[in-house]
Amino acid sequence: MSDAILSVEHLTMRFGGLVAVNDLSFEARRGDITAVIGPNGAGKTTVFNCITGFYKPTQGRIVMRQKAGDEFFLERLPDFRIARTAKVARTFQNIRLFSGMTVLENLLVAQHNPLMAASGWSISGILGLPSYWRAEKQAIQKAAYWLDKCGLIDRADDPAGDLAYGPQRALEIARAMCTEPELLCLDEPAAGLNPRESLVLNELLRFIRREHGTSLLLIEHDMSVVMEISDHVVVLDYGTKISDGTPGQVREDPKVIAAYLGVDDSEVEKVEAEVGL
Ligand SMILES: Nc1ncnc2c1ncn2[C@@H]1O[C@H](COP(=O)(O)OP(=O)(O)OP(=O)(O)O)[C@@H](O)[C@H]1O
């Protein structure tokens, strides 16, 4: 069996005449932190939206392989089954918490499915049967565990909307982890974080991979995060893959430098010399 947890095969996404993603293929290996990078408008979020079921790709296949050996073709599944059955969770570029609910409640909502099953779709919950109490207690314990890991345990009863930006990002990650994903997709997790918060985020992501065996796929603009924690980097430009390798390999790739500096390949050497690379 391949050690790829996710295979993106010939993915194309068109919006009318615009080709946002063009015949893209790459693999994310199990247990790795894989980063998808590229200049603004390169197609990164569109790739994430295809993987997580928010968009149906125009063409291509996205295969998720679970530890137990089950395979899922994500382009054929509705988004709620991608999260629940295929075990792919995501966070968003624009934070999407329930801001009027408490921090703890946000994590309990994420566990709605197992809680509903334990409640026998209401009856055991209404009658307060022990099977429901047990499930509720476990859900609270899991939420408390992730709040502790994300440094939010003291804020459990505060409205999520009262948290500063960095802690809201951490809460989104905690919420995704409460669904026990095998693949966690993070859309710009370091956006808006200060350097100290970025370091804490790096540690949290490493912890998630190390202690929970979760594979991570992230879109990120912050190169300090990408270069520091990624095992594998895929670079997009205008919807097309221009490089794929270790952080060191893509950093040295003239095509990547050209894309980021916005120059033709032929001018890379000249521009590199000018900017001192
Ligand atoms: N729903 C949509 N309808 C039409 N065009 C879209 C849609 N979503 C994305 N696009 C276009 O697809 C292209 C890729 O956008 P996308 O958001 O995937 O890029 P990105 O690499 O994530 O950019 P950024 O780094 O700025 O977030 C852009 O030209 C964008 O305008």
Structural features, described:
This protein has 2 domains: 1-87 and 182-247, Rossmann fold; 96-179, 3-Layer(aba) Sandwich (Rossmann fold), CATH 3.40.50. It has helices at residues 44-51, 79-84, 103-109, 112-118, 123-127, 130-149, 165-177, 195-212, 223-229, 247-252, 254-261, 268-275; strands spanning 4-15, 18-29, 33-37, 59-65, 71-73, 88-90, 183-187, 215-219, 232-237, 240-245. The strands form 2 sheets. The chain has a 6-stranded mixed beta sheet, sandwiched between helices. The protein has a 4-stranded antiparallel beta sheet with strand order 2-1-4-5, covered by helices on one side. Helix 6 packs across helix 7 and helix 11 crosses helix 12. With 277 residues, the chain is an alpha/beta fold. Strand 7, helix 8 (195-212) and strand 8 (215-219) form a beta-alpha-beta unit. The structure holds adenosine-5'-triphosphate (ATP).
So what's the overall shape? globular
Summed up, the helix count is 12
Helix content: 40-55%
What share of residues are in beta strands?
15-25%
In CATH, what is the class of the largest domain?
Answer: Alpha Beta
Average pLDDT: 86
Bound molecules: adenosine-5'-triphosphate
Low-confidence stretches: none
Main beta-sheet annotation: 6 strands, mixed
Protein name: Branched-chain amino acid transport system ATP-binding protein
Family: Belongs to the ABC transporter superfamily.
GO molecular function, one term: ATP hydrolysis activity
Organism: Phreatobacter oligotrophus
